[in-house]
UniProtKB/TrEMBL annotation:
A biological-process GO annotation: GDP-L-fucose salvage
UniProt xrefs under PANTHER family: L-FUCOSE KINASE
InterPro entries: GHMP_Kinase-Related, GHMP_kinase_C_dom, GHMP_kinase_C_sf, HddA/FKP
Protein's recorded name: GHMP kinase C-terminal domain-containing protein
Residue span(s) of domain GHMP kinase C-terminal: 53-132
Biological source species: marine sediment metagenome
Keyword Nuclease attached: no
């Protein structure tokens, strides 16, 4: 199951970097004020996380793409700074080329996009994202913890 999951995920660097601390500070401010929309959003994200865990434990790897999609749509409602037109365009192009779902990794605003794809669609998604100027990052799951890869 781990191998199937790993082979179904593709990761891209968007080339865009934004300050995660600004986005997270906005979230914290809204949470401290008990902003009902923020609180509801956080609860929805938690439920999506619990459902993701449940589906993975059952071995329903293909549900992950659908849950990524729901997570992404929910997360974007949290702040106008989570995404921006270029990221939204990349996301839509990936979906049109076969990605089942995806999400921006981290607080938002740039960085990395991860998509879940059926293996037959993976080459199309990779080609489409590279055409958009994103860099495909090969990765593997690691269960040994952090390692120094480059020491300068």
């Amino acid at each position: 199951a781990i191998e199937q999951l790993e082979s179904s995920l593709v990761l891209f660097f968007t080339g865009q970097e934004r300050s995660a601390s600004e986005i997270l500070a906005e979230h914290e401010k809204k949470s401290q004020k008990d902003d009902p929309i923020m609180i509801q959003n956080l609860h929805q994200i938690k439920e999506i996380g619990l459902e993701t865990r449940k589906q993975l434990e059952k071995g329903n790897i293909d549900k992950l793409g659908e849950l990524f999609q729901v997570h992404w749509e929910t997360k974007k409602k949290r702040s106008a700074n989570i995404s921006y037109p270029f990221i939204d365009e990349c996301y839509e192009v990936a979906r049109k080329n076969g990605a089942v779902g995806g999400k921006l990794i981290g607080a938002g605003g740039g960085g990395f996009l991860m998509f879940y794809c059926n293996n037959n669609d993976k080459p199309r998604v990779i080609a489409a994202m590279q055409k958009m100027g994103l860099r495909w990052e090969r990765f593997r799951f690691d269960f040994d913890g952090a390692k120094i890869l480059v020491n300068t």
